Amino acid sequence: MSDQLRILLSGGGTGGHVYPALAVAATAAASARDVDFRFVGSAHGLERDIVARTSVPYDAIDAGAFRGRSPLAALVSIWRNLRGAGQSLSLLRRYQPDAILVTGGFVCVPVALAARMLGVPVAVYLPDLRPGWAVRFVARFATVVAVSFDDVVDHVTARRVVVTGYPVRPEFGSWDRAKGRASLGIPDVLPLVLVLGGSRGARNINEAMVGGASEVTARAYVIHATGALHIDAMRDQIGQLPSTVQERYRLFPYLETEIAPALAAASIVIARAGASVLGELPRVGAPAILVPGTFAGGHQALNAKFMADRGAAVVVQDRDLPGGELIRLLGELLDDAPRLNAMSLNSRSMGRPDAAAALFDLVEQIARRPLAIAGSR
Fold first, then answer.
1. Across-strand partners of 224?
2. Between residues 107 and 334, which one has the greater pLDDT?
């Protein structure tokens, strides 16, 4: 009998619900573990595009969200989730996974329901500080729930909760400032500002940065991931500015292979406060200005406050962006190297470089010994 494990991954809606699962798969591959991973997501979700950039096979199912839906739309979502559960049952019977890891988003609900019907152990990883609706639901019957920080444990209703840290892909540990700048072709003569709007971009951050581009590039280089929907408009606006500004302001629709070197090279990061900031920024010790989005049930505001309370970030409210608060604060920080250095140290102190390995070990435990969960709380 082969010792190979078959692990099903599921999550979606945002990159913060997808990358932790892929980090576990990448870590297992890097350590030469014999594991066959597959990813289950929605047919048209962001997760499909992200997983397509990896070697992990992808299966699509029907699923529907409930938050913010009208009664009629909620009924449609119920029907879609029931269809998704049926599709998941068929998939699980065909693939016969030893365990399932879900990381949030409505698509993981029908997968977890099918797993419960077939008795397949389920591990839930909670990327954010507070569980969303889907994770709260699945956690009630999961074998184990993993979280990033001790502070989260009391907010999770589950039989077993384990603190693993936030899993980050192995390549984040392979870069430092010098290597990152060299890879990106950024001279090491001025600070580097990295601007990230999240998986889909952030219009208000984009507009604030364009408005202050001349001021910022007078003292720093900028790498700006605008989101695919905004890249053309941003290129047009930056293209109207003087060539000296354009030479120091580099635009990308999205950062994929560039994200690890860019974060390692950055003097400061401007970003939304999705779950990934809790893991990726501490992994490289990046200080940040966080602009939490006002969506997703307020999760981003909690993430931003968590980082700020630990001295790793400062927070700017989205409503204050048109007033120039972002550019003012950025200039203040760029002029205060000791403060940026302290923020960097505080950020790095939050990291758990072994988090992906710890989460994989937890999933392996429930796959091989479903009732023996070491280190549970």
1. 195, 251
2. 334
Residue 288 in tokens: 């940040």
Instruction: Check pLDDT > 60 for residue 370.
Output: no
The H or E element that residue 74 is part of is helix 71-95
Contacts of 223 (CB under 8 A, 6+ apart): 184, 186, 192, 193, 194, 195, 250, 252, 255, 258, 262, 266
Residue with tokens 């569980």: 131
Counting the structural domains of the chain, the total is 2
Label residue 228 by pLDDT band (50, 70, 90). confident
262 in a structural domain: yes
Note the pTM of the prediction, 2 decimals: 0.88
* 3-state DSSP of 320-333: HHHHCHHHHHHHHH
What count of other Cβ atoms lies within 10 Å of the Cβ of residue 323?
10
Residues 240 and 339 in one domain: yes
Q: Closest by alpha carbon to 262, among 216, 227, 224, 316?
A: 224
For CA atoms 11, 15, 17, 21, give the dihedral sign: positive
